[in-house]
Design goal:
four-stranded antiparallel beta sheet, elongated
Length: 198
């Protein structure tokens, strides 16, 4: 089936689009029968099936004819504790900038633990760093950083929103080299991650 927007036909024939939960990540697969000037696909995700945000980009094949082109995207982005459903869609973009959305695919999430699933990047760092996590509520997030002798060197309490969040740590650029423990807590959830400052 050819994708259409209004009376205009976009130059991509999307023949399949599936999404499935594979252990700790969502696996998306799709295929096209032909493409003309296809720049890329943007993968968009939602926790409620309504508010979507981009989580990845996959390059298109440009122009193909008479051959199936297969695509795959694995989304390892942390999922909020308590979430049981994820929703995905594709935004196809051609070289002219025109775009069109696919249908939505919903998947059931399983095997998650009650954690914020936080990561700190880059790690190790020689300067600043960023803590990335997924919030399931709008409750404030408390972030504490402790040095190697257990002394607290930083405390931040930030407002939260549903979905993926980032807390920048420009203060890390001034810390001495060593290993730091970063504690992130929200409601009854708490996680400690390690940061190496070189």
């Amino acid at each position: 089936m050819q994708i259409q927007v209004g009376n205009s036909t976009l130059p991509v024939s999307l023949t399949s689009f599936t999404a499935a939960w594979k252990g700790k990540a969502a696996e998306l697969r799709w295929a096209t029968a032909f493409e003309i000037d296809n720049s890329h696909f943007v993968v968009e995700r939602s926790f409620d099936g309504s508010a979507f945000r981009a989580v990845g980009r996959v390059a298109g094949a440009g122009t193909t004819s008479g051959a199936t082109t297969n695509y795959r995207f694995d989304d390892p982005t942390p999922v909020p504790a308590g979430s049981s459903r994820l929703y995905y869609r594709l935004r196809q973009v051609d070289f002219s900038g025109a775009d069109v959305l696919s249908g939505v695919r919903a998947i059931t999430v399983s095997g998650l633990t009650n954690t914020l699933a936080a990561v700190v990047l880059p790690n190790p760092t020689i300067g600043s760093a960023t803590v990335r996590f997924v919030s399931a509520t709008t409750a404030p997030v408390r972030l504490e950083v402790f040095n190697m002798i257990g002394r607290r060197v930083l405390l931040k309490v930030v407002a939260a929103q549903d979905g993926q969040m980032e807390i920048p740590l420009p203060e890390a650029a001034a810390w001495k080299a060593g290993v730091y423990q970063i504690s992130i807590s929200q409601n009854q959830q708490r996680q400690v991650v390690r940061l190496v400052r070189r």
